Amino acid sequence: MYIEKINGPEDVKKLSVEEMTQLAEEMRTALLTRASIHGGHFGPNFGMVEATIALHYVFSSPEDKIVYDVSHQTYPHKMLTGRKDAYLYEEHYDDVSGYSNPHESEHDHFTIGHTSTSVSLACGLAKARDLKHEKYNVIAVIGDGSLSGGEALEGLDYAAELNGNLIIIVNDNDMSIAENHGGLYQNLKLLRETKGQAECNLFKAMGLDYLYIDQGNDVASLIEGFKKVKDTKKAVVVHIRTQKGKGYLPAEKDKETWHYSGPFHMDTGKPLVEEVSEDYSDVTVKYLLDKMKKDPTVVAITSGTPTVLGFTADKRKEAGSQFVDVGIAEETAVALASGIAANGGKPIWGVYSSFVQRTYDQISQDLCINGNAATMVVYWGTVYGMNDVTHLGLYDIAMLSNIPNLVYLAPTTKEEYLAMLDWSMEQNEHPVAIRTPGSTMISDGKEVTKDFSKINTYEMTQKGSKAALIGLGTFYSLAKEVAAEIEAKTGTKATVINPYYITGIDQAMLEDLKKDHDVVVTLEDGILDGGFGEKITRFYGNSNVKVLNFGLKKEFLDRYNVEDVLKANHLTKDQIVADIISTL
Amino acid sequence: MYIEKINGPEDVKKLSVEEMTQLAEEMRTALLTRASIHGGHFGPNFGMVEATIALHYVFSSPEDKIVYDVSHQTYPHKMLTGRKDAYLYEEHYDDVSGYSNPHESEHDHFTIGHTSTSVSLACGLAKARDLKHEKYNVIAVIGDGSLSGGEALEGLDYAAELNGNLIIIVNDNDMSIAENHGGLYQNLKLLRETKGQAECNLFKAMGLDYLYIDQGNDVASLIEGFKKVKDTKKAVVVHIRTQKGKGYLPAEKDKETWHYSGPFHMDTGKPLVEEVSEDYSDVTVKYLLDKMKKDPTVVAITSGTPTVLGFTADKRKEAGSQFVDVGIAEETAVALASGIAANGGKPIWGVYSSFVQRTYDQISQDLCINGNAATMVVYWGTVYGMNDVTHLGLYDIAMLSNIPNLVYLAPTTKEEYLAMLDWSMEQNEHPVAIRTPGSTMISDGKEVTKDFSKINTYEMTQKGSKAALIGLGTFYSLAKEVAAEIEAKTGTKATVINPYYITGIDQAMLEDLKKDHDVVVTLEDGILDGGFGEKITRFYGNSNVKVLNFGLKKEFLDRYNVEDVLKANHLTKDQIVADIISTL
Question: Which parts of the sequence belong to the Transketolase-like pyrimidine-binding domain (chains A, B) (predicted)?
């Protein structure tokens, strides 16, 4: 096999076009085998195999610098830059991350996992090159789906002003994670249909040069095109038409499902492990579809990740105009929600914790200053969520909970979540965010009668003394376990509190605790810095009550083991119990 | 005068074109008189007088809903919607805010002060309208300068998918605050030159319908154009060419200076009060221009506000390619800085506190995960800064200080600032942000010898006992005053600490304080929630040391009086002294 002999781009350059075409097939087979066993981003990589080969044939990485947007399509690049073993041999599958990573290779220039960043980052590399009077190519590779993001559009606009070499490869497979949304995709379609000849051209309108390559999965065509733009003196877009999931029939047919895949049976494409248990996305879509039927002003919004709210293709169809995908455009999603709420609609936006930070300013300015009653649901804000450094769910409390006017809620069970959701959708007073708990969804069947309009009122679920445990969201059950263990070990029955509200403190209850408690303990599923617990600690700063805050250290973790991280952060039940007993 | 009889849009509709043209002149005179006495946003309003009259003539606000981007150009709208007195009579000048404001009028739909939001917000109004099966026009008015912002470009892209009425007025005066930057402005120029006929059209490429109005300061042309798009069934851009500062010669000639103006002599255009004292912007540009000459890899970046770093037009020219304006595009500014640093350059980005929040994700992902040594300088992060609700500088500590890997520094004097700046520009280890102090710049002439690479090492500037005062940035001098007052009143010499580092605690020093201090006091010029003081309080949570945190409440203030706010937040010297003495 050719792939076995590729130890770096220099080995690609030795091959003929026929050999590179064969190499592409071998790489696809390796990608398919690895994906079926290991899982990972699928479709984007399958479409980019030939283009990656051609890039390394024409250009000379790492001197020429290639930046991959969101880096979902970075596996072929890794295979050709000294990391093939991680794709060929099962025992090495975990040697590499799923994203571009400078710690792995000099051929990677940034750790990237969020979309729409490549053009602006590449502009930076190019600008530094020009300041230093160096000469080489800087190349950004961006998928069509990422173009709808504000940073990408800003970057395209700025690139024209660089006045230096920059090559922007637009990998157009006519798909985002789901189908594309936004007017610019009509223009990409027009350009594909006219083989790049249409006068009305988004990229030219942004001041960029432009080249179209129709056969984006043909090595020879790509090489020819890339040679034309090599050493360009200004910014140029190379628009290549590729096929997402190319080479694996189930993925070619159902591009959305195969954007990312867990392990699967190669013959059938069926997942090895069927997900059977209900999760917060399932619960949400069920609630919303029912509510939409009763109320035509209810509208669910996604920014390119429709399934976070549970809206698979069939359910999107069912919701009709009451479901909106703005494309990967979180800023517009929040502003849209604010505008809908301002005009009497009932918007709900679902977002992963890792992506909510893409729209801080809009949450603060467009939404919270205006006090519009939109609902946001934040998923996977938990140590039990995604564990790549670019996709952590540990920072949303620190970010959201310090924005004035926002009510950020932390349910602990399915029932609490639905009660909060329903309250939020019906009220007209507050911008509300709800953080779904991590780990397995707990459903206790209890009716929730709490009136959530009484902002910042906590619930004491067990009245005790000496120690009070305030367990937020995911960690409420941990608080209960700790209390039980303390009682078993010391006979002291601790107080247990479900705070519900992340954004404020229940002053009356906290004041009352001073009477018969020596220590108050907070537990939160996120970083401690700027988080929930510190607000409690500040309240008690001038009192004799001691406060212990449990949560995670402010740091960037990468591909961690949950148990190890919990232990390192003193978050196991035994550690917490020991700390409290030593304080009592 | 006609203007005196305009109590609402219905009065505009009664006028003939000739009368409206006369009205425009009257409005301009009133705007000029008010600006010369009161100050405010100047150029944007002067260009939009005729268009605003035509909008209110053709459309029926508030049923038809007009959303003004950044709302710098909202004064004429206010004059025509029942708020003329605030522009005609000096005693009423302060009756209105400088921004669109639903609390003032049903003709304003959002409180807006940040750029690039109007299209997305208007999409929200339109979407709610369609869900409710109502019929009216929704109009976004956006200046050409705001188009470079990510949210605006996202919004244009999404607007095409609305499938309902939306009119986007692009007010093209060929200027941002300074000159425009970005490739899209070449396209606007082409469209102006071809009177909208060029085939290559950014807005059409975004899937939008398009109409060009060449005479954007002619009431009749505008009325004719607006009538054409009224009740459109899909999103349409109306591109109008206007003249920024029209009608006042100094403003027509120097559009940048006259974007915003303080009070001035009407005859000469000279400011009534000359700014003579040096500020942090002056200090920065002086330092940078000198450094640029010695090191060609130093590059200053702005996102549309060049003077924040002190770069007036002459100094931009002096810096040449070592100064970059990316346009109003904070996300790209941060990514660009990260890319430059990654490739061996020395980038510095200057930004107002209120706008740094427009790029949380890029600071976290593009910059801090990658650990690139870019420098950010945050200006006006202080209670003494801008006091409109949309431009507050109270939240940057809560936002930035909880992002891992970032070193956020708080100098207290000019000398400390320059030492930090120089250290930051020369080091290769950390992304660094520096928060310039508020109030008058203090220069004590002291040589700063501290090694800032020793992260999180505070400086004890006065060793005392019982009480320790940690005064951050602006409030360090307050801490010294409080200490002096406590000593005068009680004889107790308190410890005083300059922490320098916002992002971390000096554990050794804090531990040491436990020996002979009963109370530790923190003072910070920002909100307490998620801020600096809470990190100190958490450290002492499990000790006998009491902690008092002084800072601002988490809330949105609007057009406040500093003294009142300080008092309300218990931030006067006397209040703090009393609190500490009662704790001792």
Answer: 278-442
